[in-house]
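Notes from the 1:1 (GR / supervisor)

We went over the backlog. Supervisor wanted to see one worked example end to end before approving the batch request, so GR pasted a single chain during the call. The sequence is below; no edits were made to it. Supervisor asked that the structure be written out right there so they could see what the output format looks like.
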Amino acid sequence: AYFNVFEHLIKCGWAHGFSKRVRRPPTDPVNAMLSYGYVILSSQVASAVAGVGFDPYIGYLHSSRYGKPALALDLMEEFRPIIVDSVVLSLLNNRQFEQKDFELELNSYRMTDAAKRLFLEKFEERMQEVITHPVFEYKVPYRRCIELQARLLGKYLTGEVSEYTPFTVR
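Structure output shown during the call:
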């Protein structure tokens, strides 16, 4: 349902070709950007989860299997829209990407190296953006929010707290 609405947030003609989330392989530029961003976010979340002492490959929502950081993917769900999706929409709607920033090979789109660099720059800017954490009510960058959520999730999974409060923004 989310991605059925997502296409309506895309302006400037980029929604053409994007009608749903397609991961492997990404069949249009928007899916290529989402996939690239989710891989980066997944590694950031996996580092945060490991940093608080948990195995990122043993999850509770996503199934555990070889090579899949299930716990990182569980926690990442809270941050996809506010980090990756917002970066994708900003880059597209501000016309910072053009068709030449993508390569099509074997019915799969991928970003050029220059496009990846720009995406990473905008991703980093977003990760450094300071917001008020909804649970602790103090100002922290999104990167620190991921670590704080990993700690809160850890306390919940070990029984130290009875309830886990997912990260949300108002």
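Supervisor's comment: Residues 2-157 form a domain with the Four Helix Bundle (Hemerythrin (Met), subunit A) fold (CATH 1.20.120.920).
Batch request approved.
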